[in-house]
Predict the structure of Glutathione S-transferase N-terminal domain-containing protein.
Amino acid sequence: MQRPLLYTYRRCPYAMRARMALLQAGIDFDRHEVSLRDKPAGMLRLSPKGTVPVMLLPGGQVIDESLDIMRWAFEGRDAEGWWARAQGAACRALVAINDGPFKQLLDRYKYPQRHPSAQGPSAARDEAVACLLRPLESALAGKAYLGGDVPCAADLAIFPFVRQFRAVDDAWFDAQDLRATQQWLQQWLQSALFGRCMEKPAR
């Protein structure tokens, strides 16, 4: 094996941020698109927890957490400072919120049948806004990216989850007073990097 092998799922936000980091870092990798209903035995042998992304390096090392894949991607290949700019306290705090309470609220909002609540999915939606989107809005005030005038790894880490949140009800999301966040999201949705990330693998 000459290149890293990435087990991925096109629409998974964790896998998206791993792919975007690898692409931004200029790393050539082989991509194995996984069916979540029929996970490949090879992936399960490498990572029994059975979630994507999972990356097998040419030397045999396995990395099965998306942030660790991002860190590996930029390690020694960060001349533009993508990873370095994401290590400030504010960026690290936003990523922790995204991966913790916001992701839990997103699941309750997107999959109410799996997370029944007397308050309904709108309660989880509103909590998610207060939890991450308001702090994100403040962080983006007066700048294009979490990295400032240029993006950083924190943008990559958070963007796919905000994309997923908006997709539940895009009209509602677009009507909210979250102008900086909406503009930031649209920049990423229209970016060449995201376009490459979402290309369907050749069959």
